Amino acid sequence: MGRPKKELTSLKLIQVNIRMTVDDYIKVSDNARTIGLSIAEYIRRKATQKSLPKKKVSPTDRRLFVELSRVGNNLNQLAKYVNSGIRDPYNIHKQLEEVKALLQFLKSNITGNDR
């Protein structure tokens, strides 16, 4: 018994060729590779507004992201203490803001590929 025939509407019979700049191609291919799709499937899903899979994150980046989240949680606890109205003898409020901004920058670089 052979494989069942596909319906005519589900066959990919039509080919569409497009031109793009080298920069556009690099961006599209990087985005497709990041989420584990072929370039053609990535473009097809974007053009038809179908959902894209979540970005694949390497185990190293995942561990880094978890650790950064823990640090951020500790910083939020410290910020809550500082903002509670208790006198800040060490003037850490400004330093906390700088560290939070740095953490946000690092997190965005881990997950920063545009889909």
Instruction: Classify the beta-strand content into a percent band.
Output: under 5%
What is the element string, with H for helices and E for strands? HHHH
Distance, first to last CA = 42 Å
Rg over C-alpha atoms, rounded to the nearest angstrom: 23 Å
Can you count the beta strands?
0
The major sheet is characterized as: none
Counting DSSP H or I runs of 4 or more residues, the number of helices is: 4
Number of domains: 2
How confident is the prediction overall: mean pLDDT?
Answer: 80
Percent range for helical residues? 55-70%
Shape: elongated
Classification by helices and strands: mainly alpha
Note poorly predicted spans. none
Which key terms come to mind for this protein?
single chain, elongated, 2 domains, mainly alpha
Layout of helices and strands:
Layout: H1 22-34, H2 39-47, H3 59-83, H4 92-110
